[in-house]
Amino acid sequence: MIQRRDGPQTMSPHASMRPRSPAEALEPTRAPQRPRGGKIRQPSRVLSAIARIGSAIITISVFALIVIGGLALLLGHFYERPGPLTDARTVVIEKGAGRIEIAEQLERDGIISSRWAFVANHLLHNVMSGGKPIEMKAGEYEVKATASMRDVLELLGEGKSILYKVTLPEGLTSQQIVERLNAEPTLSGEITQIPPEGSLLPDTYRISKGMSRQELLDRMQQESADFLAAAWEKRAPDIPVSTPREALILASIIEKETGKDDERRRVAAVFSNRLKKKMRLQSDPTIIYGIVGGRGPLGRPITRADIDTKTDHNTYRINGLPPTPICNPGRATIEATLNPAATNDLYFVADGTGGHTFSETLSAHNAAVQNWRKIEKAQSAEDGKDKTAGPGVVDTDSTEAADPTPATAATPTAAAAPAVAAAPAAKTSTIPLPVRKPKPPVN
């Protein structure tokens, strides 16, 4: 029996839909319609802009990294490769020169191939140095053949410049030292004022070309202060000086009295013993300093008038030590002053060999003086000319007057002899080194 349906058949939503043909099976299923009443959302313009900007930034960053990496490789190539120098060359970097000035000079001198590569590598190194930038220092440098930019930059940064020696011997006054420094061509600048007497430590100093004269002078003062302070801590307990400055004054006198290493402590003992006994020091170098100051030698023999002239430094006429040093003593003399020999010597006189004969008594000293005169007479005869001292000339070492009171019978008198023409005073700019020469003794 056939049943009729009044209306079209509807499929149950749960019923499975089967394709009616193979072609229909290959077609994609149509998406369901949007529910009625729902709003259609438009894409956000802000998010799109942000996405585009982010994409651009990433692209630019990648490109910049590629460029920077290429430049870094190129700079590294310039930095590490051998330089254009075929032979070693000396270059002088002036004080105050900037980075670009130095680079231009190096390129001009044929030491580097590119000033800009040098400057860029210097900047790059300082940025990546972790707080330890390279500061190129002034000076005179010897650059080796084929030196790379790295080698040159490290050389200038470490300050390994060519060093010169400046020797300033013991016994010079501060004025003489300043004159020598002013005549030194490897130094630069001016010295504004002469430092206090005795405040400089004589030595051989290493300097770089262009170093300031005042800088070296300041260094000498600091060296002197440091050494004196250290030596003072090691002084003998019974020395007759109470301050480092007094020790420096006494050392300056001892420095001018002898240049022999094996005599310094014994000469120091003579003056120490005299100070302990309240005897005047009677040192000729103090007479000379009282007359000419720091200019240097007197240029003529000392006369009786010089001895009788009272100055602040004339130890024939003042008690104790003079108010200031009379020269700049060296290390060995300062140490000898603070640790004199254990002797009772009160006198010394030249012995004809460059040294001295030391005596504890005036009678022994007078005998030593007579012996020296015989030696001097023999030397005069051998030389064929008279070396007798002029009127009133006395020996630095003939310290016979043992009492600070007016002269006694033991005080020597001037020898009657022909006058000796005074030698012209030397210019201070050409003052020679101190010469330890025995002088004629008194009668």
What are the defining features of this structure?
about 450 residues; mainly alpha; Dna Ligase, domain 1; two-stranded antiparallel sheet; 8 strands
| SSE ordering | HHEHHEHEHEEEHHHHHHEEH
Question: What strand line-up does the widest sheet have?
Answer: 1-2
**Low-pLDDT sequence parts:** 386-443
Oligomer: single chain
Share of β-strand residues = 5-15%
Helices and strands: which structural class? mainly alpha
Give the overall shape. elongated
Distance between the termini: 180 Å
How many E-type strands?
Answer: 8
Q: Largest sheet, if any? A: 2 strands, antiparallel
Count of separate DSSP helical elements: 13
Helix content: 25-40%
What's the pLDDT, averaged over the residues? 79
From the alpha carbons, calculate the radius of gyration and give it in angstroms: 46 Å
